[in-house]
Amino acid sequence: MQVKINYEGQLQFKATARNHYIIGDQPEENGGEDKGMTPPEWLLASLGSCIGLYGVKYLQSRNIDSSGLSITVNADKSIRPVAHLDNFQVDVSLPCSLETKHKLGLQQAIENCIIHNTLIHSLQITTHIITAPTLVK
């Protein structure tokens, strides 16, 4: 799995995966042009989209109508000990009622999405700085 991110000028970045792209930017009050979501908003969108996918698959596998499913993801920005997102809250809404067993099944399904699992487990991030070779005179 790979996503490439290229700087597009100002405070904008273009993330490309396969043949798809999204634009990231900052709100005007942060010096951007507000032409796209911020990286933290991308993270919330990724979590919500993943939860939605797992939820729809669960519902469809049980012949339960998934139309009208919506997900809202909120998080708090915290600055201690370092800047990070915390207290994620995910609301999954369906316009139909569900039996208790399907509410529990849906809960289990969405809590097994890959982004949810990534965020709740320790993960490893390795960063490499790659620059052009230094010219020796």
UniProtKB/TrEMBL annotation:
Pfam families according to UniProt: OsmC (PF02566)
PANTHER family: OSMC-LIKE PROTEIN (PTHR39624:SF2), PROTEIN INVOLVED IN RIMO-MEDIATED BETA-METHYLTHIOLATION OF RIBOSOMAL PROTEIN S12 YCAO (PTHR39624)
Protein name per UniProt: Osmotically inducible protein OsmC
Species: Dulcicalothrix desertica PCC 7102
Classification of source organism: Bacteria, Bacillati, Cyanobacteriota, Cyanophyceae, Nostocales
